[in-house]
Design brief:
Elements lengths: L5 H6 L7 E5 L8 H10 L6 E6 L11 E5 L13 E5 L2 H11 L11 H4 L2 E3 L2 E3 L16 H12 L1 H19 L5 E2 L11 E6 L2 H10 L4 E3 L19 H9 E5 L6 H7 L1
Parallel strand pairs: 1-2, 2-3
Antiparallel strand pairs: 3-4, 5-6, 7-8, 8-10, 9-10
C-alpha cells in the first residue's frame, strides 16, 4: 500500500503526541477512519490528524487537515507551483489564513467601521493591519489562482484518465515474475504506478535506454540519506522500497498506447 499501518501508528502514541501527519503516499491512503476510531478507543481524540496529500488531491471526514501540492506533474497544477490546505474546522482555517497573510488578523474589508473599530493600548487602529502571529507571505498569485481554478474544473476528467492508465498497467503487468504490483483495492488516485523489482537497476537501465522515464519510489528510508544520517534506523518496509521500488508515469497526458509501449 506504501502507507502506514494503523496498528503501527497507535503503538507510537504517548502523552507527548499532539498531532499525526501521515502521507497519502503516491496517492494511496492509510485507513484514516480506523485510525480515528483507535485513537478514540485510547482516549486520544485530541490528537490532530493531518493528511499529507502532496501526491494527490483528497481529504477525508476523519482527518482534521489535508494538504496537497500543485507541482507541475501532479493531478492538477496552478501554473506549475503552489499548493492548498483544507480544513474540517473553521477555527483552524481562520488561523491558517493569518499565518498565510503575514500574520494579519484582519480581512480585506474596506469598510471604515470594520477597519477602525479596534483599539490597541488606547490607540484607534486599523484592524486590516493588526498582527497576531508570526506569519508568512504565502498568498497565491492571481495567475496561479486563475490557472488552478480552470484545472479544478478538469479534475474529474484527469482522474478518470489516470484511473484508465493505472488499470492498463495492472492488466499488462499481471503475473510477471519478480515484479511486485501495488495494492489497488481502494482504487486510489495514484500519482504514478509504484512497482518493486529485485533487479531494479537492470530494469530501470533498460527502460531509460528505451526513452521511458523512471524514478525511484521517493526517499525510501529517509534516515539513510546524508541529511538524516544522525537518526539512522532500520525500517523494514521503507528499506525494501528503497532497495527495490520505482515509479512509472501515469499522467493524464498519456494514452493506453503509451502504456502498451512501456509494458
Amino acid at each position: 500500500t506504501y502507507c502506514a499501518k494503523v496498528e503501527d501508528v497507535i503503538q507510537l502514541i504517548d502523552e507527548d503526541v499532539r498531532a499525526i501527519m501521515l502521507p497519502n503516499l503516491i496517492g494511496n491512503k492509510p485507513n484514516w477512519k480506523l485510525l480515528r476510531s483507535e485513537l478514540k478507543a485510547i482516549n486520544r481524540e485530541d490528537v490532530v490528524l493531518i493528511e499529507d496529500s502532496a501526491d494527490t488531491l483528497t481529504e477525508t471526514q476523519e482527518s482534521d487537515i489535508a494538504t496537497t501540492s500543485f507541482y507541475a506533474s501532479h493531478v492538477i497544477t496552478a501554473g506549475g507551483v503552489g499548493g492548498m490546505v483544507m480544513f474540517n474546522n473553521k477555527q483552524n482555517l481562520s488561523l491558517c489564513l493569518q499565518y498565510r497573510d503575514w500574520g494579519r488578523i484582519g480581512d480585506d474589508s474596506e469598510s471604515m467601521d470594520d477597519r477602525f473599530n479596534h483599539v490597541v493600548d488606547g490607540i484607534q487602529y486599523d484592524h486590516k493591519f493588526l498582527y497576531s502571529v508570526l506569519g508568512y507571505h504565502m498568498k497565491c498569485s492571481e495567475m496561479s489562482a486563475a490557472f488552478g481554478l480552470v484545472q479544478l474544473k478538469r479534475f474529474q476528467q484527469f482522474s478518470k484518465i489516470r484511473r484508465t492508465i493505472i488499470e492498463r498497467y495492472l492488466k499488462n503487468l499481471e503475473g510477471i515474475k519478480g515484479l511486485v504490483l501495488p495494492d489497488d483495492s481502494i482504487k486510489p488516485n495514484w500519482l504514478a504506478i509504484p512497482l518493486q523489482a529485485e533487479k531494479r537497476y537492470e530494469l530501470l537501465t533498460f527502460l531509460e535506454d528505451n526513452n521511458i522515464q523512471t524514478r525511484v519510489a521517493f526517499a525510501g528510508n529517509i534516515t539513510r540519506h546524508p541529511i538524516y544520517r544522525e537518526y539512522l534506523q532500520d525500517f523494514e518496509n521503507a528499506d525494501t522500497i528503497m532497495q527495490n521500488g520505482f515509479l512509472l508515469g501515469a499522467h493524464h497526458g498519456m494514452t493506453t498506447e503509451d502504456v502498451d509501449y512501456v509494458c
